[in-house]
Amino acid sequence: MPDFTSGIWSYIIAIVTILSIVGLTWFTIAQSRCKKKKPGEQAQTMGHVWDDDLAEYNNPMPGWWLNMFYITLAWGVLYLILYPGLGAFPGVLAWTQQTQYEEELAEAEDKYGPIFNKYLNQDIEKVAMDSEALEIGKSLFSTYCTTCHGSDARGARGYPNLRDNDWLYGGTPEAIKTTITKGRTGAMPAWSAMLDDEKIFNVTSYVLQLAGREVDTESASKGKEIYQTSCAVCHGAEGQGNQQLGAPKLADDIWLYGGSRKKIMESIRAGRNGHMPPHGEFLGEAKVHLLTAYIYSFSKEQGSN
Q: Which CATH architecture has domain 108-183+277-302?
């Protein structure tokens, strides 16, 4: 139903709509009463002539054309009686988008629910080895996850790659299921107010060194001191990360927001904020279970958790 801020708007919309239909009906009837020409009688112009040859005549409208107008008006009246359209009047059928949506969901649940539910009581590791279950999971992933993580699940800048076994919150079946069900919110604070550009540069050198890159050792040494004071509490003393906090592992060459010096400095300077919305209530337990198994199967492809 429309959510009007004031009841007066419902009446205004209804009155304007009804008057418009009445006015159009009167106009159509008036046109249908135009006198037809008698045999041999010449049509008169309406006084509008262009280029001496093109003129507007007072010929009556063809009957089939007028009938189309009548049919359209009758259809409009019938529609407004059966369906919402006159302000807050719900229509005789009391149809709403919400009820139609709920009916379609219920129909889909009756049809597909048993297919999803038959895997619900099976261990995720077992489901992850079932080819039929994985096909269903792939379909669910294509529908709900590809916008962020890509059709191949390899992610994009700011959206994790789900195939590389580098997990922000853990790659166990339980951790993946929790992520899908409840969502995740990660926050990397901005350090520009506490670290100047030189210090940020040096910390970046040390982070790149943790990732196995060749950097200036003096710059990395200075950056290490800052890292241990400001960064180790989240990312670990050796850059091993912290899955409880969702702090990325830095001792590898896998990057969520880009691994160039410029991108790393940007992350330190401005901070990062990521949000994975919860899908548990929307999808339901059975679909989440299948999605978890499908995503977990990527780890099996890599040979580890």
A: Orthogonal Bundle (1.10)
Q: What's the number of CA atoms in the CB half-sphere (13 Å) around residue 83? A: 10
Say which residue the tokens 């604070």 belong to.
189
Name residues whose C-beta falls within 8 Å of residue 13's C-beta, 6 or more positions apart in sequence: 86, 87
**Tell me: the pLDDT tens digits for 51-110?**
777 887 777 778 898 899 999 999 999 999 999 998 888 999 999 999 999 999 899 889
Domain ranges of the chain: 7-82, 108-183+277-302, 187-276
What is the model's pLDDT at position 10? 87
Please give the pLDDT value at position 305.
47
- Whole-model pTM: value is 0.72
Q: Has domain 187-276 been given CATH number 1.10.760.10? A: yes
pLDDT at 192: 96
